[in-house]
C-alpha cells in the first residue's frame, strides 16, 4: 500500500477521526433527530476527506473497486427483471396459498429465500419478497414474524454458498479473483447446513405461534409475464456462465444487464427504480474511507505489528471472533471492506472463510446484515413490527450453531 503524500500529523488525525466517526455511525445506524443513515455516514465521510484534500481524484479512482460495483449493479438489474415480471409475486403466492401447514410454509420460505439468494443478491431478494410475504402470511391468519425471521436468516445462509449471493461475497470474489465452482464446493455445504439450522431454530422457538387458524386465503393467482420470467431465467444462466467460464466477469455482467434493459414493455427508468442505489453509494463511500485509512503509514505499521503478534486473519481463531463482532457492530459489508483494505493479499482459503463466516455471522443480531434491516424496514411499511429482541431470540442460537458447523467444516477441509 503506497502511503498518502499528505499523510502529515494533521491529515493522519483527520483521516482517523473521520474513519472513527463513520464506523461509529455505521454501528448506530442513524443519529437521533437526523435522517442520516449508513449510506449517508459513508458518503459524508468520503466527501469530508475529499474536501479536506486527504484524498484527491487519483485516490478516489484507485479506491473504488469498479468491477465489484458493476457485478452488484448487474445482479440488481437481474432481480429487477424478476420483480417486474411478477416472479416474486408467484413465489410468495406459492408459499402462502398452497394450503400447507404452518411448519411446511416455514420450510418453503427457507428453501425459496435461501435458493433465490444464492443466485441473486440477498438484499434485493428480501427487498422484493418481504411485503408480499407479510400480506400472504397474514391472509392465512398467521403471525408473520417467524416467517420474516426465517426469510432473513435463509437469505443470509443461502447467499453464503456463492460468490454472487450477497454484496460482501461479490467484493471478496472480485478482490481475490475467486473461482465460482471452487467457492461453491467450500461454502455450499455449510450454507446448506445453516439453512437447516434456520428452519429448526425458528420452528422450535416460535412453535406456539405456528398454529394453523384454519383460515384459507383467496387463491387468485397474481399477474405475471411468462416471457419476462423466461427472459430472467435465460439471463441468470448467462450470468452464471460469466462466473463459471474464464471470461471477464464484469464485462459479461454488463452485457447481461444491458440486454435486460432492452425491452418494449418497460422503460429503462422503471427497471432502474428497482436498483438499490444507496447500497452502491455505501460501497463507494466505504471504498474511499478505508483506502485512505489503509494508506496511512501509522496504520500500515500497526497492521504489521498485529501480524507479528499473531493476529493473522488467515487463522480461524482470529477470523471467527472478528466476523461475529464486526458484523454485528459495524455490519458485515463495512467489516469486509475494512479487512480487505488492511490485508489486501489474503490467500484464497482465507477469503472463502471470510465470505462464509461474515455472512453467517450477520444472522446474530438485527443489525448484523443489510438483509436483516431491509426485512425489518419493509415489514414495518406494511404494519408488521419485527423488534431487536424478537430477532435475537432466533438469531443468536441459529448463528452460534451455524458458525460452529462452518468452522468445523473449514477446519476439516483445511
Overview in brief:
The chain has helices spanning 9-28, 38-51, 57-63, 66-84, 87-96, 102-119, 122-139, 145-159, 167-176, 180-205, 226-244, 249-261, 268-272, 277-294, 297-308, 316-327, 332-342, 348-361, 370-381, 388-413.
List keywords for this structure.
disordered N terminus; 0% strand; 414 residues; globular; mainly alpha
Task: Give an overview in words.
By secondary structure, the protein is mostly helical. The chain has one domain (9-413). The protein is built from 20 helices and no strands. It has helices spanning 9-28, 38-51, 57-63, 66-84, 87-96, 102-119, 122-139, 145-159, 167-176, 180-205, 226-244, 249-261, 268-272, 277-294, 297-308, 316-327, 332-342, 348-361, 370-381, 388-413.
The average pLDDT is 87
Distance between the termini: 29 Å
Unreliable stretches (pLDDT < 50, length at least 5) are 1-6
The number of E-state strands comes to: 0
Count, helices = 20
H/E element string? HHHHHHHHHHHHHHHHHHHH
Q: Pairing-aware structural class of the strands and helices?
A: mainly alpha
Strand-helix topology:
Blueprint: H1 9-28, H2 38-51, H3 57-63, H4 66-84, H5 87-96, H6 102-119, H7 122-139, H8 145-159, H9 167-176, H10 180-205, H11 226-244, H12 249-261, H13 268-272, H14 277-294, H15 297-308, H16 316-327, H17 332-342, H18 348-361, H19 370-381, H20 388-413
Amino acid at each position: 500500500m503506497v502511503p498518502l503524500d499528505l499523510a502529515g500529523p494533521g491529515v493522519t488525525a483527520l483521516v482517523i477521526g473521520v474513519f472513527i466517526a463513520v464506523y461509529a455511525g455505521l454501528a448506530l445506524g442513524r443519529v437521533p433527530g437526523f435522517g442520516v443513515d449508513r449510506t449517508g455516514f459513508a458518503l459524508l465521510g468520503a466527501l469530508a476527506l475529499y474536501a479536506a484534500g486527504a484524498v484527491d481524484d487519483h485516490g478516489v479512482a484507485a479506491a473504488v473497486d469498479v468491477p465489484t460495483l458493476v457485478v452488484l449493479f448487474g445482479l440488481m438489474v437481474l432481480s429487477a427483471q424478476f420483480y417486474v415480471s411478477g416472479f416474486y409475486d408467484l413465489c410468495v403466492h406459492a408459499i402462502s396459498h398452497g394450503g400447507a401447514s404452518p411448519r411446511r410454509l416455514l420450510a418453503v420460505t427457507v428453501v425459496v429465500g435461501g435458493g433465490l439468494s444464492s443466485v441473486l443478491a440477498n438484499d434485493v431478494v428480501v427487498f422484493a419478497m418481504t411485503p408480499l410475504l407479510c400480506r400472504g402470511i397474514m391472509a392465512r391468519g398467521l403471525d408473520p414474524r417467524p416467517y420474516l425471521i426465517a426469510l432473513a436468516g435463509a437469505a443470509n445462509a443461502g447467499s453464503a454458498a456463492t460468490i454472487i449471493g450477497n454484496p460482501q461475497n461479490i467484493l471478496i470474489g472480485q478482490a481475490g479473483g475467486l473461482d465460482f465452482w471452487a467457492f461453491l464446493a467450500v461454502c455450499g455445504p455449510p450454507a446448506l447446513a445453516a439453512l437447516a439450522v434456520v428452519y429448526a431454530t425458528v420452528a422450535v422457538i416460535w412453535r406456539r405461534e405456528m398454529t394453523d387458524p384454519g383460515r384459507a386465503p383467496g387463491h387468485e393467482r397474481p399477474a405475471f409475464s411468462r416471457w419476462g420470467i423466461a427472459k430472467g431465467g435465460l439471463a441468470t444462466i448467462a450470468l452464471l456462465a460469466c462466473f463459471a467460464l474464464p471470461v471477464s466477469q464484469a464485462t459479461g455482467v454488463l452485457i447481461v444487464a444491458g440486454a435486460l434493459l432492452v425491452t418494449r414493455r418497460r422503460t429503462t427508468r422503471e427497471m432502474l427504480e428497482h436498483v438499490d442505489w444507496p447500497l452502491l453509494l455505501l460501497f463507494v463511500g466505504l471504498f474511499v474511507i478505508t483506502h485512505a485509512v489503509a494508506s496511512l503509514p501509522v496504520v500500515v505499521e500497526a497492521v504489521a505489528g498485529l501480524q507479528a503478534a499473531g493476529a493473522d486473519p488467515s487463522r480461524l481463531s482470529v477470523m471467527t471472533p472478528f466476523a461475529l463482532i464486526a458484523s454485528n457492530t459495524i455490519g458485515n459489508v463495512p467489516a469486509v471492506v475494512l479487512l480487505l483494505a488492511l490485508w489486501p493479499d489474503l490467500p484464497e482459503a482465507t477469503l472463502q472463510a471470510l465470505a462464509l463466516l461474515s455472512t453467517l455471522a450477520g444472522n446474530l443480531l438485527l443489525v448484523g446484515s443489510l438483509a436483516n434491516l431491509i426485512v425489518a424496514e419493509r415489514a414495518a411499511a406494511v404494519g408488521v413490527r419485527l423488534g431487536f429482541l424478537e430477532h435475537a431470540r432466533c438469531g443468536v442460537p441459529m448463528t452460534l450453531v451455524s458458525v460452529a458447523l462452518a468452522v468445523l467444516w473449514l477446519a476439516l477441509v483445511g
